[in-house]
Write a structure and sequence with these properties.
Blueprint lengths: L19 E5 L5 H16 L4 E5 L8 H6 L1 E3 L10 E5 L19 E3 L3 E8 L2 E9 L2 E5 L4 E3 L6 E3 L3 H8 L12 E2 L2 E9 L15 H10 L6 E5 L1 H4 L9 H13 L3 E5 L8 H10 L15 H15 L7 E5 L8 H10 L2 E3 L20 E4 L2 E4 L6 H4 L13 H7 L9 E6 L6 H15 L3 E3 L4
Parallel strand pairs: 1-2, 2-8, 12-13, 12-19, 12-20, 13-14, 14-15, 15-16
Antiparallel strand pairs: 3-5, 4-6, 6-7, 7-8, 9-10, 11-12, 17-18
Helix pairs in contact: 4-6, 8-9
């Protein structure tokens, strides 16, 4: 559950949550600052563990700071060098701390366990600590930006810190990465480019290549989708529709294929498309003749199209795979729940050997209103091929992502996630086959994405 300082939960939280993480990246304005302080005071009194990250100035010099045991010493700015006096194993996870005089604050604690202590002359700063009420870590000792690259690295060990600060016990928990003791293996395809012609003998449709080289060869659970506007008789390619629909029927008839929709017109920016729907301005979807964006048409309409024209009798669409920026509004996300289909896509898990960092591993998803958008476990070939500009063999690097998210701790299942158009390039198709071959050599439990 997430919240912002303007919309904090008013219900009692004790006994309902493991703890509270406050992570601010910039100072708050007066009203939300006061609201957050009052709310945290209430949660502190209720005994809920609290972890403070990043910007903590908002509560210094307040009664709450006194209750928490945070003491700010009055001092003048100094350019004297800053030294590290204490650094425990919670510090230096992906990057060692590099203190600088301009970031030094003379903050001390009157209880708890310091994890990172800095010194400047006779002054001290406790930058990271585990406290009886939780813990805190101040900027820039949580995550840092690498010079010249703009990439991020963890200074703080998030696993060890949150376990200590939130007093999390060792206990069995639901695990979305593992089934029957083995790492889960998923396959899901966004239907983009189904009508595109492959650069091989006969110039077959990309969808046909996926059917012949992937679906018929690798008989493991797959969740595959199409874009209605690319296949239907009223879509972009009416002259190709009979052949394209026949290919889709072949694919969806396979018992190891779970059916998904990838929308009617592939919205590129969901919220702008929704706004444009109200204003009458288009341009945020595929340019389907005579079509004006409608969120329900995108989801329910495309599902009904698939079930009536492409799916075998009795086989239903199980999932809706988000398109474009994958940021639907809560009202749009609610449509999937109403229809009884699961949703997935979004997120940005792209850690590789050249970017070996947890900052490139996304969470499970994000709450939007009363619903939850499930992120894809990792990204597709578009990311590994520089937005499909090459190298077209780049998708094989997803294996590095699979390895990074398995050791030293399992963070994600294996998800062979790709667009149909990967089959248009021989190098792309070969890389996809290599990824399948690698995945099938691992000890996994193959599952549908649903």
């Amino acid at each position: 559950e997430t919240a912002d300082p303007d919309h904090l939960p008013s219900r009692p939280l004790a006994g309902q949550i493991a703890g509270i993480v406050v992570w601010l990246n910039e100072p708050l304005k007066t009203a939300p600052r006061q609201a957050l302080i009052a709310w945290l005071e209430k949660q502190y009194e209720a005994g809920i563990p609290i972890a403070l990250l990043g910007e903590t100035d908002f509560l210094l010099d307040t009664p709450l700071a006194g209750h928490l045991g945070l003491l700010r010493r009055e001092s003048s700015p100094s350019t004297a060098p800053v030294r590290i006096e204490t650094a425990t194993s919670l510090v230096g996870f992906e990057r060692q701390p590099k203190p600088h005089p301009r970031e030094f604050q003379a903050i001390e604690i009157d209880r708890g366990e310091p994890q990172l202590v800095l010194g400047q002359g006779s002054r001290r700063q406790v930058a990271i600590a585990v406290m009886p009420w939780g813990g805190f870590a101040v900027d820039p000792y949580v995550i840092v930006t690498l010079p010249g690259e703009g990439d991020l690295r963890w200074v703080l060990d998030p696993f060890a810190f949150f376990k200590a600060a939130l007093r999390l016990p060792d206990m069995p928990v639901p695990d979305v990465t593992t089934e029957t003791g083995r790492r889960m293996l998923m396959v899901h395809m966004d239907g983009d480019g189904f009508p595109s012609r492959a650069e091989m003998k006969g110039a077959p449709y990309a969808g046909a290549v996926i059917r012949d080289r992937i679906v018929r060869r690798f008989r493991i659970p797959m969740t595959l989708s199409i874009i209605e506007g690319e296949l239907s008789p009223t879509g972009l390619y009416p002259q190709d529709s009979p052949a394209l629909e026949a290919i889709a029927r072949d694919i969806f008839a396979a018992p190891h294929v779970e059916i998904a929709s990838h929308s009617h017109s592939h919205p590129f920016v969901w919220r702008k498309a929704t706004t444009a729907q109200k204003s009458g301005f288009g341009g945020y979807t595929l340019n389907i003749p005579g079509y004006q964006f409608d969120a329900r048409r995108e989801i329910e309409g495309s599902i009904r199209y698939i079930e009536s024209r492409l799916a075998p009798p009795g086989k239903r669409v199980a999932m809706f795979l988000w398109t474009g920026d994958c940021i639907p509004g809560s009202d749009v996300l609610a449509i999937t729940r109403e229809l009884g289909v699961l949703n997935m896509n979004g997120g940005d898990t792209t850690a590789t050997l050249s970017q070996p960092t947890l900052t490139r591993v996304e969470g499970l998803g994000i709450a939007r209103g009363e619903d939850f958008q499930v992120f894809a476990p990792n990204q597709n070939e578009n990311v590994y091929t520089n937005n499909w500009t090459g190298p077209y063999s780049g998708y094989r690097r997803v294996i590095e992502t699979f390895q990074f998210t398995e050791m030293p701790r399992r963070l994600k299942p294996i998800d062979i996630y790709f667009h149909t158009y990967i089959a248009t390039k021989p190098e792309g198709l070969k890389s996809l086959e290599e990824v399948f071959s690698w995945a099938l050599q691992q000890e996994t439990t193959p599952v549908f994405a649903s």
